[in-house]
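Memo to structure team: turn this sequence into structure tokens by end of day. - J.P.
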Amino acid sequence: MDFCEITDGGAIQRGVLAGLSQLHRRLGPETPPARVAFEACREGWYVADRLTAWGHEPVMVDTTRVKQLGIGQHGRKNDRIDAEVLATALLSGRIPQAHILSPARQKLRLKLAVRRSLVATRAEYVTSIRGMVRARGGSIPKCRTCDFLAKLGEMALDEEAQKLVEPLRAALDVLARQIAEMDLQIEQLCEGEPVIRRLMTVPCIGSVVAAAFVSVIDEAGRFRNAHQVESYLGLVPSEDTTGGRRRLGAISKAGNSYLRSLLVEVSWTLLRKKDDDPLARWARQIARRRGARIAVVALARRLAGVLWAVWRDGAVYDAQRVGLKSAEGVSRHAHEREFQAQALRGAANKAATRVRLARRTLAASRKDSQ
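Reply from structure team:
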């Protein structure tokens, strides 16, 4: 990795470190305290912890905003140039900082990442087994993933099919135990996070979703309002406003993709639930007007705001309060639609009047010509 050192006197020193093992030699505890900027990466948390322990001030850079510093301009991007740009920006106070998670939340995030990998592998194996059984003329009934091994055991497979799926079945058995063990570890971590239990009072929010939300947001006070949280998670529409015209597109999909996908999954479940929860009612109203997919994304965005508000207030989910907010929104939407309808009727009347005047003018002109 390339580094560049800039002092107040303007002196620049460049060099290359072969890896993290050489970080101690360059920035160990015996070196003078310094502010050290580095791009967010897999090793980011580790580097920040090491630098803090050695008496330095780590500054992790948000890689989604480095272009505003000039990185990558004119098609020139390499580690040597990037290091100098970051050092210069750090000295001038223009660094777009990324948030460094607290140690407890780092541990929670890593446990969730392990579980996510195990679950993804299990899903891949289940799909493979279903395909192999179908190739032999069989079919495994639909079921929950956690019940798949039991269903597979009930199947009367021929000898060739059994030989094909046996290695994957054995791997699935191991995966099921590992996922269960990881769930227990996550639950133990959740016990030390009272906020997670409060977030779980929101409909369809389980411990994994609540833990993922906490591990990404880290501190509710980092955000001024719910919209900032929704934007941070990439659940707000992308925008292109030029020349006085505002164009809104699909959601930005910035931020943590795993948490965003979890909120979308929860939204589908909540939308399909046949209960009277105000969030579900609100989403169903949107689905009737604009379709289920748009309703689900809108519900995921609102869920992010509700979870943040519950955390910020140190409260639990209050369906009545959410219902009042939903009613206000529906009433406001109805008022806006009525206002638009009246405005359109007024415009139509103006157009009709102009048509009548034009026809009269034409009729009078024809009469005069005769």
